[in-house]
Each structure stands twice: as structure tokens, then as C-alpha cells.
Amino acid sequence: MNDHLKRTLRLLVHLQAGGAMTTAQIAETLGTTPRTARRYLEKLREAGVRFEPGKPGTHRLGRGFWLQPPDLTLEEAAALTLASEVGNALPTPLDRPLREAARKLRAALPAALVAADGEATPAVSLAPSPREDGVADDVYARLDRAIRERRSAACLYESLTKPPESFRFDPWELHFSRRAWYVTGLHHGRGERGEARNLRLSRFTRVELTDTRFEVPESFTMARHLGSAWRMIRSPDGRIDEVRVRFLPAFAETAEATLWHPSQESAWHDDGSVTLSFRVDGLDEILWWVLGYGPGARVEAPPALRERVAAKLEEAAAAYRADDPGRRAAGPEPA
């Protein structure tokens, strides 16, 4: 395919996906001068492509014009457009290529499914989830390249509890959990024991690919690596705890409606409360999940988790009492 035809097709795709465009925008998109961009527009008109009248200096395809890619059915194009909307709701360092892909996908939809502003008809809406800022595009891109090329990376990493650390890292897989991106692989830093580590992408300040090659262990899969962890953090000794949490009636239906962990089991009680049971490797993460329900959740087992939750709630109550001017003025409550 020659360059002229490539630019012509690219112009059609952008006009279909983006609505009205100025001559300057078309020139920038095609990498040409405004004069050359006008020639491409004229060639389209000569080929029978109809344009709608609009604001002076803008160009918009006539309604009903639809250049359908030969390798996508209507259902496939609509499904991929919806998938791009889901992707926009998921924080990713690849926002720019994702938006460009969505733009091209919208160009595959007929006018009936496209709103006047060039966006896909909003029959489905998605609320963005809380997200972590601070992942540099080049960090994600370089780690992704290192994974594909099986090349070790020289890294500088800032921890919340330690000074910045330089080390060589073999990245095996990128993983999104809750609000943040992680990379799992082999950490070659001092004091490491040759075990896979999960590192948060937002804490990398430098990633440089080296010429050192590595192999991902054949036994490694992310599912096997995470095991029965609540999310990502397993106990040091790999012990599995039987966790039971009882939710009061006001919280029961909401808590039980979500599958929080693959091992989850439910037991309803006559008073409208529900007990959720899990088999979990590590208690650090599930601790904060229980605390999120405040007085609406009570840990029945194991005792260690029950004690930790009670201690955190007592700390929170003490902090609120200390910040209450009225309580300080009145003095402590009588026993």
C-alpha cells in the first residue's frame, strides 16, 4: 500500500471517529502541510465522499457514510468499542494508545451507533474506579519490553520505609490489583533470597534495559504465585487461615453479593446477618477489608485477626476522642 493511499484511509478513519476536524488538525494527523491536506480532502470529494456543512474551516463527513473494516463484523466492532470504554475506566499507563485504538474502533460503527459528537452512543456508562497516579509511561513501556525480550532491567526504586535502592530485576509479568500496577519478578538486590517479588510501578524512578538475559521459571504463573492471598501479600510461612466474618443485617446483603475471594462461602442466619468464610494465606490485607465495614463486621475466627481488628478500632476511637474539643473540656467519661 503506497503512502498516498495510507494517508487517505487514515484521514477517513479519523474523520469517522473524531467528527469535525480543521485543516490544520488534518495536516498534523497526516504529517503533511495544510495545502497537502486540502488536496486529500478534494480527492475524497472527487471519489464521492460527501461532507456536511459546518463551522468555517472545519470538515465533517456526511451522516450515513461508513467505511467498514473488512475483518470486523458489526457486533465485533461494537464489542471492542465497549471494551475500550472499560479500559478507560481502568487506570493504565497506555491511555494514549488506548484512546487512539478506541478512535479507530468508533470508525467501524455505523451512524446509528454513533452520537453527533463522534462518540459511541452512550447506551452504557462506566464510573471510573479510584486510581493511583504517578506511573510514568516509560516505566510501564520499558518493563513490558523487558518482559517480552527477556532482558534484565537496572532499576532505581523508592520504598515508603527504605532509602532509594538500586538493583537488577528480572520482570516476569505485569499485574493490576485494586488501584495500582505491579510487576512480579526476580529481585537481584542485596539480601534477597532468590524469591519472586511484587513491586509497585509508581515507585520506580528509573528502569534501564540491560543486555543480561533471563528465563521465566516454567513453574511460574501469576495464579500460583498469588496462591490464596487475599490480594497479593502472602504470609511468610505460607500458613492458610480459616477466616470467618459475621456481617450485621444492615451490611449483610451488600457484603454477600460480591465474590471477594475464590474460597468464599456464605451462611445466612435467622436474624438476617450473614457469615462469610474464607481460606486465606496472610492476614495483613483482609484486616483492612474488615475494618472498612466498621461496626458492621465482626471477626469470628481466627483469634489473631479478631484481636488485630479490635486493636485498630480502639486506636481509631481513641484518636477521635482525642480530637473532640468537647470531650477534652468535659474530661474523661466516668467508669
UniProtKB/TrEMBL annotation:
Protein origin, superkingdom: Bacteria
Residue ranges of domain WYL in the record: 139-208
Residue ranges occupied by any WCX domain in the UniProt entry: 242-317
Pfam families, per the entry: HTH_24 (PF13412), WCX (PF25583), WYL (PF13280)
Name this polypeptide is given: Putative transcriptional regulator
Species assigned in the record: Phycisphaera mikurensis (strain NBRC 102666 / KCTC 22515 / FYK2301M01)
